[in-house]
What we know:
By secondary structure, the protein is an all-beta fold. Helices cover about 0% and strands about 40% of the residues.
Amino acid sequence: MLGALGCQGRCGGAGSAPAAPGALTEAERRALPGAIVFLSERAGQKDVWRVTPDGQEARITSAPEDEYPGPPSPEGRSLLVVASGEANGRVFQQLRVQPLDGGPAVALHPPRTRARNASWGPDGTWLVAESDAQGFSDVVRVRPTADAVDTRLTHVKEGCFEPAVSPDGREVACVCSGEGDPEVYVYRADGTGEPRRITTFYLEDRTPQWSPDGKWLLFVSNRERRERVYLVRPDGSDLRVLSGEGFAGDEREPAFSPDSQRVAYVARHPDGKSRIWVADVAGGTPVALTDGAHRDDMPAWSPDGKALVFVSEREGDTDLYLMRPDGTGQTRLTTAKGADWLPRWFVPR
């Protein structure tokens, strides 16, 4: 279902035309669960839209400010949105909870602060975010209600960034710069105790994320003087490069599969083109999913692990595409004029 907003813009989809040779079949697309929210510039500004795997689209936001999709809530019925604009001569980034049935958004902070990079607690009653309301940049815990009150989890003068809640909700991984360069730390989600430092290196470690089973953390680092994706246990042990010796360009945008066994990631080349790869967490040689002849990036797994959505410029515009986890069945999903990017898959429950 498209919710209360109904069809706005193009509301076609698979089934209106035969699938292209080698593409996902209509039956495969209809069998994929949930829908995908994404950022679109088709209306002349940055808005959030949604699309089902068979191509049915609806516009989610249309505020005066640019709005970027954040993570869907655990029950899949609302979405964190970052609105970016200017108030009283100051640029702001405001977190909003946007119901996916078309209801009004709830602003979590007044438009005078920067709040972004949010991550939900597993029960959907709280979240963490990066905020400058009380310092240069703190990780704060907040309830998803109007005029919510932030609880600071970090107190680092140089700033903490990019928080990610563990699957069990007990811990928050983030990046802090208190030692002069960004390192990965883990804090207790209730704000008690001392943080646990995970990485120790003089270059940048950033964008930590948990595996769905909570057994691993991923992060991106330039410690080899190039961007690479690393795996580490939440206690700091077993640190290693995800792709082993298979480096094929600056690595970024890693995404765990739902079963925690694989990671899709992007390798970007000096010519501006990029390629999507998948690597087994257990090790082995990474497998290229796209051919590297275009710019393909931002992979996101379907909740059942049977497909990936990604962004590509292969047909002249920036659009969303689907493919199977082995790289076959690459299928264009959005076709409207204007860039479509930053996909996030969700399933309402």
